[in-house]
Amino acid sequence: MIDWYPVARKFLFHLEPEQAHDLALRQLGRLHDLGLLRHLVPAQVADPCEVMGLSFPNRVGLAAGLDKDAAHIDALGSLGFGFLEVGTVTPQAQPGNPRPRMFRLVRERALINRLGFNNDGLDRFLAQVQKRRWRGVLGLNIGKNATTPIESAAGDYLRGLDAVHAWADYVAVNISSPNTRNLRLLQQEQALDALLHALRARCDQLDRGRGRRVPLLVKIAPDFEDDGVVVVARALLRHRIDGVIATNTTVSRAQVQGAMHAAEAGGLSGAPLLEASNRVISSLRQALGPGFPIIGVGGVLSADDAAAKMRAGANLVQIYTGLIYSGPRLVRDAALRIRDATPTVH
User: Phi then psi for 121, rounded to 5 degrees?
Assistant: First the structure.
C-alpha cells in the first residue's frame, strides 16, 4: 500500500497547527463516511491481549487530546488502533486558552500546546460517544473546568465520572495537564490521596449499581523525580486504582533549547519526551510490581519507540504526536513491532 501521508503532511504543515488539526479530522471523517478510508490505511494488526480485564485486538492506542469531543471515533477507529481514548472532557463547555496555542517544532519532531481542555462539555461529548458505530475499547478521559478552584476539583471529577461511567470501557483521570492552572497540584500526596479516595469510592458504587467493573486510571506527568514517582505509585496501590497512564506532556525544555517556539508556554510532546516518559514508566514498574497495568505514552514516533515503551515496562502504548508526524502507518508498524518482539517479563 502506497504511503500517501507524506504528501498530506506537506500540505497540512503549511497551515497553522490547530487549523491543520481540525481540517485533518474533518477530512478523515469524510473519507470514512464515503467508505474510502479503509482503502487508504493498512489493516488492523491482530495481537490480542487482555489488560485490566479488557480484551484489546492489539496494544497500540490513540492518546487523549486528539479527539477532545469524541466527534471522530468511527474514523479514528478505522486507522488500526487497538483502542481509543477521547477527551479530556470537563463538566461544562469551555473555550480553552487564547490562540495561538499550538506550535510545531518540526526539526525536533515535537509539538508544544497550551490548549487548556478546550471542549464542548459533557452533554455534547456523551451524545457523540452514544452515536458511535465503532465498538472497540474506548477510554473516556475526564478533567476539571478551568474556573473550578483547585480545592473543589474533586467535584468536577466526580461529575465527570458519574456521567461517563455507563459508556466507558475505562475512565482516565487527567490530573497532569500543564495547561490548567494549578492542576498538577493534585499529584501531590495529600491532594492525590483525597481525590483518589473519593473517585475509588464513587467508581465502586457505580460498578455495583451497573453490574460491571469499569477500570479507573490516572494520567500523570513526566516531570517527577524518582521519589515523586514512588509517592504516586503508593497512592495508586493504596486506593486500588486499576492502571496508570504515563505520561502527559512535559514543561521541561531541556531537549529543545534554542529551537523555534521552544520558549512558548505549554506542554511539550513528541520525540524529545521519549526519554523522560520511559524513565517514569520504568520507575513506576519497579514501584508497582509486575502485575499493575501501565499505558505508556510520550515520544512514540517510530516502531522502535513503541518497542522501547514496552521494554520500559508498559503493557499498552498510546500515540498522539507521532500520528501527526508519521501518519497512520505508524499505528501498524508499532503494533507489528510489539507483536513480533520477544515478550518482556516485567
Answer: 90, 170
